[in-house]
């Protein structure tokens, strides 16, 4: 990233943008309710940063990796009354061992030796990882081809059908438990966002999808793969997870999946 500032929230603070800072300069953007004991860190004068959001297990997180051994100076500490007395700490990035911004506290000779040693080690690990990845990929491909050939045998075909039926029953049970217990729910957009004549924007209206449709949709959600994203549940009910659209007799409508109060599908990057 170019010069700018990052906002860090180690206590899962909801800010815009919010970046959670770990000791190795790892930051993650979270979109959760601000807890009472939260501390928000804002890092200014950031020169380098790599976004690695795909590594996060949370759908609305963004991960940032700052240069190795980044150093910071505390600029200010203040309490925000308008945000439930949230404590905000502002830091300024002074430099690191691996970025364009050089910190005078790191001697140039030690800096060069450390960076050279680090990159040599990282290159060796990358080459080793590439070889292991290629070998694992070949093993996976060979295993899949073997399983496909086994299906020509009646005994293996019967076992495959049993496993598929077992998996379907498990998905049905899991979906029913999650929906009926309120762990997760599906919401459907009954009215799209509208721009009013006076220039204001009327928010979209979302309503909970009826349990009658939520359970089958949840089953399809658990069954989906990177290839299989569209399902025809019945003659009148279909769901498309690519566009996050459901049609249960009232025309295509947008849907979203919530766990608690957090939207986990579709993916929404901050």
Descriptive overview:
The protein is flat. The chain is 31% helix and 29% strand. Helix 2 packs across helix 3 (211-223). It is α+β, with helices and mostly antiparallel strands. It is built from three helices and 16 strands.
In short:
The protein has 270 residues and is α+β, with helices and mostly antiparallel strands. The chain has helices at residues 108-150, 154-181, 211-223, and strands at 4-8, 26-28, 39-46, 50-51, 63-65, 71-80, 86-95, 184-191, 194-195, 201-202, 205-208, 230-232, 238-240, 245-247, 253-259, 262-265. Mean pLDDT is 78; it is low at 8-32.
Number of helices: 3
Largest sheet: 7 strands, antiparallel
First and last CA, distance: 16 Å
Average of pLDDT: 78
Number of strands: 16
Tell me, briefly, the overall form: flat
Helix content: 25-40%
Tell me the structural class: alpha+beta
* Uncertain stretches of 5 or more adjacent residues: 8-32
How big a fraction of the residues is strand? 25-35%
Topology:
Layout: E1 4-8, E2 26-28, E3 39-46, E4 50-51, E5 63-65, E6 71-80, E7 86-95, H1 108-150, H2 154-181, E8 184-191, E9 194-195, E10 201-202, E11 205-208, H3 211-223, E12 230-232, E13 238-240, E14 245-247, E15 253-259, E16 262-265
Parallel strand pairs: 3-7
Antiparallel strand pairs: 1-3, 2-5, 4-5, 6-7, 8-11, 8-15, 9-10, 12-13, 13-14, 14-15, 15-16
Helix pairs in contact: 2-3
